[in-house]
Task: structure prediction
Amino acid sequence: MALISILPCNLSLCHTLKLNHPAHLCTSKTVPLLARRKKLNQALTKAEIPLRRTGKHHPNLWNDNFIQSLPNRSYEHIVVGISQAQHCGSLITEIKEMFSESHANNVYPLLVLVDNIERLGIDRHFQKEIKEALDFIYRSWGESPRDLNTMALGFRILRLHRYSVSPGMLGAFRTANGQFLCSTAQTEEDKIKSILNLFRASHIAFPGEKILDEAKQFSTTYLSQAIQKSGISCNLLQEISFNLEYGWYTNLPRLEARKYIQIYGQNKSWVRTVGNLKLLSLAKMDFNAIQSLHQQELKTYSTWWKESRLSELEFARHRPVEYFFVACAICEDERYSAFRFGLAKLSTIATYIDDIYDTFGTLDELKLLSEAIKKWDPTSIYNLPQYMKIVYMSLYETVNEMDREATKIQHRDTLAPSKDAWEAYIDAMMQEAEWLATRYIPTLAEYIENGTLSSGTRGATLQPVLTIDEILSKNILPKIDYPSRFNDLLSLSLRLRGDMKSFKGEVDRGETNSSIACYIRDNPGSTEEDALNYVKNLLDERLKELNWEYLKNDGVPTCSKDYAYDITRGFLHFYKERDGFSFSNKDIHNHVTQILIDPITM
Result:
């Protein structure tokens, strides 16, 4: 009988069972397998133990025939007498000239130009101009007082570009009761825009920056009330709602670009400015051209998924297109198709492994799979059941394929750290399976240590980042990969956020361990609400620390760090409202459509 096959139980029952269980039952190293099996069988009758458990997940939402039917769109058609590529080139040249025109004693127009370009998703065309503009702004940043809007906007942009700026200058606009004041000469909409920029700035906080905590609390309340008022323009209401909903950590660059193309396009006064109209025109053409490229990649990727036979595993979550959406939503660059393919494939495989260890596999089977993965030899799979052979070969072939892609960039073998990442993931998943089999609720500290590894973030992130055009030497790699604090925080943030949104569904499936359950175990008499509040506060503090690790200058190439950070933001996006990995038929489905399927109307 499979030890992992147990009936679902609620948190209170699991907690009671833990109190009756000796602490030494937590690992297979201290208690023989047969002894643990005997204790479990004493607790459960045969009638209570189903052979296997499944998550009863909804099926794949994206039929391969539909994906293959997506049109091969060409953007070489004629626009005002020239090809679209030529038109885009002309617009890029004209927009570059706008940077020099914006240089003046007042830095605000230059900040707005940079902000608009970045929000519209066309900043990769203007990296040199943006750097020169921000150098100019930074040189005079502390010389003279400015209004709240300029200070909040400038602080956010400069910090995200790794300039050393302090939020202390926002203190000039804070009152004794924690409010932030705008100029009385501003219109109501201008005041709201100032507070919106304050809200956006407050998310880029480092540990201990209390003024940004106050700014976040104040601006969230202010904006929530502002959208209830009459007389505010429709485009500003959309902008406020979008930022309140997605904030920073669950926002994605391509999703933001799509939304702001819509918001700016509906703002008649905004598009009347010739320069703004050029930005919008370039953004639309660029978005559609990149989407067309991503659609062709999606066809190749969907064919891989079908031919891998992963689609045959009915017990698992089939989310291949959703993972490709994440890859495209954070990486639009034409050069980095290997990054997108690698992230989508590895994330998909990690989900199948997760469903095997969490629900479907028996403990004996899981031990065999763990051993086979550690041997890293296809000849070791013959004792595995067929469903495990499919997953094993998908993992083996994909990791080796990604190693070949990474070697082209890194000019050295990268397989060893990648195998280490997957072994650590498998060991952590095995630990969770043994905890589940014995109904052991670990301490919160035990759970977090193991859960940071079982989040799967490292395995999904390492190889794709190695395919970016940046050399990560053996001395630099540990600063972004294990054992860096940066890597640790990326993984931990996903684990905590995932627990907050998915623990109830996991309990229904019989997966009893989460940071919520472990907090209750550590604090007898505490409630689910207490646990959720604790985990939320813990996550908020770790995200600030992650901001610091991400934005500090430590020798890691900026591009590599950006993509590693954005991969986690992409995964966090799935947990914005619910467990979007298990239930992707709602908002996630709409986002896939916006980024990968429907072009923007020109």
Observations:
- The two ends are 61 Å apart (CA to CA).
- The chain has a mean pLDDT of 87.
- The chain is about 65% helix and 0% strand.
- Residues 82-286 form a domain with the Glycosyltransferase fold (CATH 1.50.10.130).
